[in-house]
Amino acid sequence: MAEATPGEVTMEKIVSLCQRRGFIFPSSEIYGGLSSLWDYGPLGVELKQNVKQAWWRTTVQERDDMVGLDTSILMHPKVWEASGHLKQFTDPLVECKQCHLRWRPDELKDNNCPSCGGELTDPHLFNLMFKTSMGPVEEEASVAYLRPETAQGIFVNFQNVLNTTRKRLPFGIAQMGKAFRNEITTGNFIFRCREFEQMEIEYFVKPETADEWFNYWLEERRNWYVKLGIKAENLRLRPHTEEELAHYARQCSDIDYQFPMGWAELEGIANRGDYDLTQHAKHSGKSLNYHDEETNEHFVPYIIEPSAGVDRSVLALLCDAYTEEMAEGELRTLLHLHPTLAPIKVALLPLSKKGNLMEFASQIYTDLRQCWMVQFDTTQSIGRRYRRQDEIGTPFCVTIDFQSLEDNQVTIRERDSMNQIRIPIAVLKETLTAKLAGEELFVLPPGGQIWKEEKKE
Ligand code: GAP
Q1: Are 101 and 95 in contact, with CB atoms under 8 Å apart?
Q2: Could you tell me if 388 and 377 are in contact, meaning their C-beta atoms sit under 8 angstroms apart?
Q3: Separation between Cα atoms, residue 362 and residue 368, nearest integer Å
Q4: Could you tell me if 47 and 55 are in contact, meaning their C-beta atoms sit under 8 angstroms apart?
Q5: Which residues pair with 21 in a beta bridge?
Q6: Is the pLDDT of residue 21 over 90?
Q7: Residue whose CA is at the smallest distance from ligand 1 atom 21
Q8: pLDDT tens sequence across 368-412
C-alpha cells in the first residue's frame, strides 16, 4: 500500500472530512439526498454559528452606526414586483425535447443535450424564486415567494428603523437569515445551494458620498476575512463589468476566494443607488425620503450593500484551514481554524480511565464547559485523540495524568505547533482564556513550565 503523503486541498477531501466528522451531511440522506441542499451536523452547526456570531459582533455590536433586524422570509408579493425580482431575477434556460432536462446555454459545448444528446429548445427565461401559496384553501390562496435575498426586509423597514432609532446618515442595517433560489447550476458542495444563509448590510449614505463608502466597505469586508484567518493571497477583489451588473446595481465588486475549483465569489459589494427605496416608495405609496435636519433637505439615500454568504464563508474557511503535514512519520490532517471559529475550543483528555482520574478530570470538565464548548474524550490512545481533535480544529487539548492527582497540574497541547506546557489547575481557566485570545503558548502563567514529554503523542 502506498504511504500517505501531504497533498493539496481538494473539494473531495473537504467533503469527506465534513461527512466523516459531522460538519455537513447531504439533506435527507437516507432518501438519497436532495440536490443542493445540506444539513449542518453537530460540529458544522457550531462552526456556522461562530461565523455568524463573529459577523454580528463586528458588524452590529461593535459599531455605533449599525443596527440589526430579523425580518420574515415570506413578504408581501408586491415587494418582489417593486424590487424587480419578478421580472428580472431570471436565468435563460434551454430544455431537452427528449429527456426534458434543463440547461443554461452558457454551459453547453454544442446545441445538444449533455445528458442524452437530444435536441434543445430555444432559450426562455426562468425565474429563480421559489413560489408557494399563503392561506388555508389552495385555490383561493395568494401567491407568495420565499425570499431570494434578505435585503428587501431591510428596505421595507427603513422608515420603521429611522423612526425608532433616530439614526442619522450614514448608518446601516444588518440582517442574517435564510434565502432561497431555485438555482439551475448547482454543485461544488455548499458553494451554490437552493437554500442558504446570507449576512447582509444595507448602508444608507448621502448620494455624493456613495463612492467613498463603497471603497470603505470593500476594504472593511476584505479585512474581516483576513482577521478570521483566511490567507490574504487567497482573496481578490473583482469589479463587475457593465454587462454583469444586477438590475439594481450601479457598481459592484466581488470579494473572490480561491476555492479548490478556482476563483469564485464569496461576497458582493454593490452600490444600489436609490433604486430600492425609490421603487418601494412608488409601489407602496409611502414616502421613503430622508430629512436632513442640518440642511433641511429631503432626499432618497443611496445604499451600499456588502452581501456575504454564510455557507460560502464556512466553505472558504474550511478550505483555507485544511492542512496535511507529516508529524512523527505519520500524515497529520488539521484544520487551522481561528480559535473564535473552532467548534470545540478545548478537549479534555484523561490519560487513563483507571483510579479516580476520570472523576478528577470530569470536575475540570464541568468547570471549563461553563466558559467554552469543551469535549471530554476518553477513547483510544492519546495520540489518536490528539489527531482527532486536530482534524476538527480544536485549538487546545488539556491532558490529565496520574501525576495531576498529586501536583494539581495539567498539560496544555497546542494544535498548530503540537508544543506543550504544564501548568497548575488553579490557573487553567485564565491561561486558556489568554491562549484562545492569541497569547503565545510559551508565555507561562505562575507555576507553569514548558513540557518536553512529547513521546506521549
Ligand atoms: N442582496 C444582494 C445579493 O443577494 P448576490 O450576489 O446574489 O447578492 C450575495 O448574493 C451572496 O450570497 C453571494 O456572494 C454568496 O456568498 C451568497 N449566495 C448567493 N447565492 C447563493 C447560493 N445559491 N448558494 C450559496 N450562497 C449563495
Answers
A1: yes
A2: yes
A3: 10
A4: no
A5: none
A6: yes
A7: 192
A8: 999 999 999 999 999 999 999 999 999 999 999 999 999 999 999
> Which pLDDT does position 104 carry in this prediction?
83
Q: What is the DSSP string of 397-414?
A: EEEE-HHHHHH-EEEEEE
Cα of 144 from ligand 1 centre, angstroms: 21
- End-to-end alpha carbon distance in the chain: 24
- Our measurement of the distance from residue 61's CA atom to the centroid of its chain's CA atoms, rounded to an integer in Å, reads 18
Selection from 262, 258, 268, 311 nearest residue 36 by Cα: 311
Phi, psi of 111 (to 5 degrees): -95, 25
Q: Is residue 183 in contact with ligand 1, taking CB distance under 6 Å?
A: yes
Three-state DSSP class for residue 275: helix
Cβ atoms of 246 and 45 closer than 8 Å: no
Report residue 62's pLDDT band, with 50, 70 and 90 as the boundaries.
very high
Q: Give distance in angstroms: CA of 139 to centre of ligand 1.
A: 33
Report how far Cα 175 is from the mean position of its chain's Cα atoms: 14
Give the pLDDT band (50/70/90) at residue 115: confident
Q: What is the pTM of this model?
A: 0.93
The letter for the amino acid at 29 is E
Write out pLDDT tens, residues 116-146: 999 998 888 889 999 999 887 776 668 999 9
pLDDT, the chain, mean: 94
Establish whether residue 267 lines the binding site of ligand 1, counting it when its CB lies within 6 angstroms of any ligand atom.
yes
Instruction: Evaluate whether 247 touches 270 at the Cβ level (below 8 Å).
Output: no
d(CA 177, CA 357): 45
Cβ atoms of residues 152 and 277 within 8 Å: no
For the stretch 226-251, pLDDT in tens is: 999 999 999 999 999 998 898 899 99
Using CA of residue 16, residue 22, residue 23, residue 29, what is the dihedral sign?
Answer: positive
320 lines ligand 1 (CB under 6 A): no
C-alpha cell at 155: 428596505
Distance 378 CA to ligand 1 centre (A): 42
